[in-house]
Design goal:
The protein is of the alpha/beta class. It contains 14 helices and 17 strands. Strand 11 and strand 12 form a beta hairpin. Helix 7 crosses helix 8. The chain starts with a strand and ends in a 6-residue tail after the last strand. Bound molecules: L-homoserine.
Length: 440
């Protein structure tokens, strides 16, 4: 059978990795797909030919639209990233009857509903395994492998750059900016690294995972998103003392009232496997009612790990090119007419445990005032630590760390407001959320 013709948009980190993996493993890939998969045309503004042995045999244009309009191309691989022109290119490719493979989480999280509707009408596939967790086949696992389950919750370390930064800060006491620069140099970080450190990239990925897990439309604008910029080395150390690690977690949970959808720095018990996922590695813990806890681990970023997912999608699409569109795996795991509008909970309504760090004047009665306020809000305390003053800080002011039992966030907000108003509290209260991720 003739090889399938692929148009590759983008020859940067992931595009280059995809080209190289397809070249290097061409024979093995054809054995799996049933026919060859050939990059017959590529589009890139700029690329480094020395990194891409064999690229001289491929016509490369600067005009990505010429590739999506090319009648000889059957599958378009979009690895440009960002919202535009990626969205327009993908919609043009679909309108032209081409299948699409993309690693673009921003595009899928924000415009996926529109893109999948267009693909459904055109009878083509849009595959996006590389959009979440780099090389980890977590989309396939949640969409297909866990299809028997009602998924109860999932928790993911789904931004390699953020995890790399938190790990280096904890292990080596390195400076935030220095570690971020290294992540950029290694090709892990987004073009705009604030997407990594402010949690936007993780929120894109969580949006996608939550849709697949719960059968809801993609709703990126409803994800609560908090970055890691305010996490200090002191908090990392106090959390360790209490038996927790701080991770930048994407968390989604089905509750009777609706779905929690949130990305924020989170304390998790250090005995959990996911607490020990370090550096640029990603991991996603998924709890299904039948299977129990399952954990997916691997490289969440980088050229060839991400290319691994892109090429797997290419093999999948190649295998089912001639299959009846009605019998393919649905884009969002559930049949398009079976998606449900389950409400996404406002943050006031979510329930979690908390780590609080207060700067308190060291005199009798201060802790009593604080614990009374918490008690008034029905907040139960699990642990209290009073620490030495920070080096250089006034000796009568001490950090006090509190761990609470789970409570509704609205109550915690009211308690924090009252604590901050006390004369004996000298600063804003630092608040981090705690998830036990019970898997027992
Ligand atoms: N910037 C992303 C990360 C790349 O650091 O995880 C993969 O999506």
């Amino acid at each position: 059978m003739n090889p399938v013709n692929v148009g590759l948009l983008g020859l940067g980190t992931v595009g280059g990795g995809t080209f190289n993996v397809l070249q290097r493993n061409a024979v093995e890939i054809a054995r799996r797909a049933g026919r060859g998969i050939r990059i017959s045309r590529a589009a890139a503004r700029d690329y480094d030919a020395e990194r891409l042995p064999g690229i001289e045999a491929v016509p490369v244009t600067t005009d990505a639209f010429a590739v999506v309009e090319d009648p000889d191309i059957q599958i378009v691989v979009e690895l440009i990233g960002g919202y535009e022109p990626a969205r327009e290119l993908v919609l043009r490719a679909i309108a032209n009857g081409k299948h699409v493979v993309t690693a673009n989480k921003a595009l899928i999280a924000s415009h996926g509903n529109e893109i999948f509707a267009a693909a459904g009408e055109a009878g083509v596939m849009v595959a996006f395994e590389a959009a979440v967790g780099g090389g980890i086949p977590v989309i396939k696992a949640v969409r297909e492998g866990l299809a028997a389950n009602e998924i109860q919750w999932l928790a993911g370390i789904i931004n390699g750059t953020g995890n790399f930064i938190l790990t280096e800060m904890r292990d080596k006491g390195r400076d935030f900016a220095e570690v971020l620069a290294e992540a950029q140099r290694l090709g892990y970080a987004e073009a705009d690294p604030t997407f990594d450190v402010e949690g936007i990239d993780a929120a894109h990925k969580l949006t996608i995972l939550a849709s697949l897990a719960f059968g809801i439309p993609l709703q990126f604008d409803k994800v609560y998103t908090e970055g890691i910029g305010h996490v200090t080395r002191a908090d990392v150390a106090y959390a360790e003392e209490l038996g927790y690690r701080i991770k930048h977690l994407g968390f989604a949970r089905r509750t009777a009232a609706g779905i929690e959808l949130r990305v924020h720095p989170t304390l998790i018990p250090e005995r959990r496997l996911i607490a020990n996922v370090n550096g640029v590695m990603n991991a996603i813990l998924v709890m299904g009612d039948a299977v129990g806890p399952t954990l997916y681990y691997g490289a969440g970023a980088g050229a060839e790990p991400t290319a691994s997912a892109v090429v797997a999608d290419l093999v999948d699409v190649t295998r089912v090119l001639t299959a009846d569109p009605g019998n393919r795996v649905p884009h969002l795991a559930f049949q398009p007419d079976a998606l449900e509008e389950i409400p996404i909970l406002a943050m006031d309504a979510i329930e979690t445990a908390y780590y609080l760090r207060l700067c308190a004047v060291d005199r009798p009665g201060v802790l009593a005032e604080v614990t009374r306020i918490l008690g008034d809000q029905g907040i139960s305390i699990e642990a209290i630590l009073q620490k030495e003053p920070f080096p250089g800080a006034a000796p009568e002011r001490v950090p006090v760390i509190l761990l609470t039992h789970p409570v509704q966030e609205g109550r915690m907000n009211r308690a924090i407001q009252r604590i901050e108003a006390l004369d004996s509290i000298c600063d804003r209260v630092v608040r981090l959320r705690v998830e036990y991720l019970d898997v027992d």
